[in-house]
Amino acid sequence: MNPIFSALQTSVFEVMSQLARETGAVNLGQGFPDDPGPEDVRRKAAEAVIDGWNQYPPMMGLPELRQAVAVHYKHWQGLDLDPDSEIMVTSGATEAIAGALMALVTPGDEVVLFEPMYDAYVPLVRRAGGIPKFVTLTPPHFGLTEEALAKAFSPKTRVVLFNNPLNPTATIFSEADLDLLAAFCNRYDAIAVCDEVWEHVVFDGHRHVPVLGRPDMRERTVKISSAGKIFSLTGWKVGLVMAAPAIMRVLAKAHQYITFTTPPNLQAAVAYGLGKEDGYFEGMRADFQRSRDRFATGLRDLGFQVLPSAGTYFLNLDIAPLGERDDVDFCRRLVTENGVAAIPVSAFYAEGAVKNVVRFCFAKRDATLDAALERLAERSPRG
């Protein structure tokens, strides 16, 4: 057995979800919405199964989808992309990340990672032969510093794996942060692999700024997006990859030998969805923001210390004021004693773990959030 995977423990997401199933708890752990997703996009996928092509689509993705990606990101982020040479479709963003690491990392290369981070990053980096170098971000702001980057980068740095907006912290990096990261990438001749799957799930008037569009980063950035996150259809697993032609040619070779293609009916539906009017995307953000505000207000009314959430589906609590020192133990007791499942944020750290933050998913119906708040009242600092 490959020790990189055989030595891994069961994911904390599965542990907490299993406990939620066993206890009948309100599951605010795993990050998926209650809503089934936009009906018109789902209907397009169903129609494409019946009336469309169901054999192998082109390896790089349906031409209509790649064209839709180019138009979409020109409109929303000001990016000029060639749909033929700079855009690829993968079976989910995680496949895109795995393929990028396989394509860009050779054994012994160093890969800079920002923790807390998506739990797939470290095993994928190691499987590609890379050596992880961690930048540890801390609450409440989780921002970058020049000192922290200077410690992580070296002449051996080949790739920077960067998630913005950041799951699990629900923060958005500033343009100053992006330019600082760009400066280090250019100084050390590193490629930024940018996991930007939450780019449309941003609040309070924020507009996503892609690293690909920063000065001097056009030729050294891989941008990865997710139709599943854009349309709240997390089970679809349709990834969108953008990079300059010299990089894309190598990414495509890795993709060719991982999944090769992605279901054509889903691609057709995503192409349709990316062309929806601005009102859909603005309305989607407004709906999630309303749920965030409803849940955050309820938590604050109970006396909990809520950390800021600028994007994603998540809110975080600082449990230190409760006298709690172990987020894993707190989450186990929360699900078994109070009937609410959450995720300990220490699970997103490889080293230097922060142990006083827990994450809740607020992308749920009002009744679900209200039920969770009613149960959380039993742990309220205000009694």
From TrEMBL:
Enzyme Commission code(s) on record: 2.6.1.1
GO MF term set: kynurenine-oxoglutarate transaminase activity; L-aspartate:2-oxoglutarate aminotransferase activity; pyridoxal phosphate binding
CDD domains hit by this protein: AAT_like
GO CC terms in record: cytoplasm
Cofactor(s) required, per the database record: pyridoxal 5'-phosphate
Domain Aminotransferase class I/classII large, first and last residues per copy: 26-376
Catalyzed reactions per annotation: L-aspartate + 2-oxoglutarate = oxaloacetate + L-glutamate
Enzyme's top EC category: transferase
Record-linked Pfam families: Aminotran_1_2
Keyword Transferase: yes
Keywords, comma-separated and alphabetical: Aminotransferase, Pyridoxal phosphate, Transferase
PANTHER family in the record: FI04487P
Family in the record: Belongs to the class-I pyridoxal-phosphate-dependent aminotransferase family.
NCBIfam families in the cross-refs: PRK08912.1 (NF006488), PRK09082.1 (NF006569)
Subunit structure and binding partners: Homodimer.
Entry protein name: aspartate transaminase
